[in-house]
Amino acid sequence: MSDLEADSKFLKKSVIINVIGTILKVCGPLLTILLARIFGAADFGVFVSTQTLLLTISRSSTLGLDKGLYWYLPQNRLNGRPAYEGVMESFWVSALVALICTLVIFAGSFTPLISKELPWYAFSLVFYAVSYVLSNTSEGNRKPQNAVFINSFFVAVLSPLSSIVMHFLGIPHALPLGLLIGQICGFLLHFILVQKQFPEMPLIPVKKISKALLVYSLPLGFNEFVSSFLIRSSLWMVMLFLGPEKAGAYGIMVTISNALQTIRVGFTPILTPVVAGMDKDRLHTDLKPVYSYCVSMVTYIQLLIGFFIILFPNEILNIAGKDFIVQPETLGILLLVHLLAGFWGMAIVIMNGLGKSLYTLKMNIFSLGIALGSGYFLVPAYGLVGAALSMLCYNVVAMIWNNVYLAKMKLWPYSSKLINRFVWICVLIACYVVLNVGNFELSLWQKAVAYLVALAALGIQWLYDKKSANPIPSTKR
User: DSSP label at 477?
Assistant: First the structure.
């Protein structure tokens, strides 16, 4: 079996897993929306802002070692190292850094600088950090189904469900304790599955962490901090300029639109190790079919979800309650951001697969400057719409930058077969404009019929694509 055939088999299997994961991912956001309805806009706004802060700290605590494993684990095979090298070394370093951050938060809670509620959230930090390492270990070892099930379904459902149950039982601090329960259980599952993949791996590593892994990962670690701040900057600016209630409403729309983002993010651990395992010759022969196949599948799945969201936005927001229906046009802009990122934005995955972590860091720092600058002017002036426009601005700049850089490297991974996917994105955007800008209102049954028509059209497109050409050629070289 050729390298391309092996990659093809892995990608097709991963797509099936990702589709199943997409179905499972619906449960978590639905419970999060229900969580917002139960706790109210103000409390949910504080919760979602604090949770994003926690995610930023925990991601940064890994020092990029979790992301580095995407690249390092496939390299173990190429360089004759033990298959598990780098895993437990990264685990213990991340645990130590996260523990130090937790202690700092607890110490700071005795001063006016840190809220008394934050230490309750900080209990989850260590479990978040080590779960990132173990989850990315499975993904780097081409076992993405582990991360899909645990992260996208098990933890995503258990955390809000635990908070809801504790709320009705009258247990205080239900929101942070729900996070803690979800993370502890998720960590235990990840640990068991990683041990099964590497039964010979010692709990305490016999060697120090590899210099090559550190050199690759540390820029990624700082980059992870910058990118985490970048992704959540619009929400924090809404919290700062508009208050917790508006932050809660914006948080719900971000949660809904993230249904599209999670599809793209789900392909990152699929594509990164494949690119990392390509030599120079394969980059020029195999990258285009592999990358175009991933973009095609990401866009296709996003379209299935996107048409549902643009047809039923008020119905979805009503699950959280009327307090969360604020500037609903914001949701359309967020959807546009993720659709464009699913098509053009995956170029950053190639950069990481090629080991260009320093480049990624520079790009994200520049994008953060654009996000903060645009948000400072747009959020106070246009509210939630301004926050979404700020996100659109920096994403468009990053997409252009990344693809120009690839072109300069004489790598253009987009196949002409992707044109029809881009046309479909334009159709979805046009439908959104017609439904929200013009005086055009559909009844519930008309929306249902429209969605079924969209599904049928996408199904016909899928069958045509499958019949006309195989997305990844399987001929032996």
Answer: -
Mean pLDDT of all residues in 237-248: 86
Q: Identify the top-confidence range among 319-328, 351-360, 398-407.
A: 398-407
379-391 per-position pLDDT tens digit: 999 999 999 999 9
Alpha helices in 344-443 (DSSP H): 347-353, 357-382, 384-408, 419-436
User: Tokens standing for 437?
Assistant: 């800008």
For the chain, the C-alpha Rg in angstroms (whole number) is 22
The residues, ordered by sequence, that sit 6+ positions from 73 with a Cβ below 8 Å of its Cβ are 83, 86, 87, 137, 140, 141, 273
Q: How confident is the model at residue 18 (pLDDT cuts 50, 70, 90)?
A: low
Residue 355 three-state SS: coil
The whole-model pTM stands at 0.71
Q: Is 445 exposed, middle or buried, given 0-12, 13-18 or 19+ CB atoms closer than 10 A?
A: exposed
Q: Where are the alpha helices (DSSP H) in 277-356?
A: 280-285, 287-311, 313-320, 329-343, 347-353
Q: What Å distances lie between residue 47 and 170, 240, 341, 430, CA to CA?
A: 18, 14, 27, 35
| 205 in Cβ contact with 92 (< 8 Å) | yes
Name the DSSP class of 356: -
Provide φ and ψ at 445, rounded to 5°: -70, -35
Structure tokens at 103: 């202690």
Give dist(CA 177, CA 228) in Å, integer. 23
Q: Say if CB 61 and CB 185 are below 8 A apart.
A: no
Read out DSSP for 75-123? HHHHTT--TTTTHHHHHHHHHHHHHHHHHHHHHHTTSTTS-TTHHHHHT
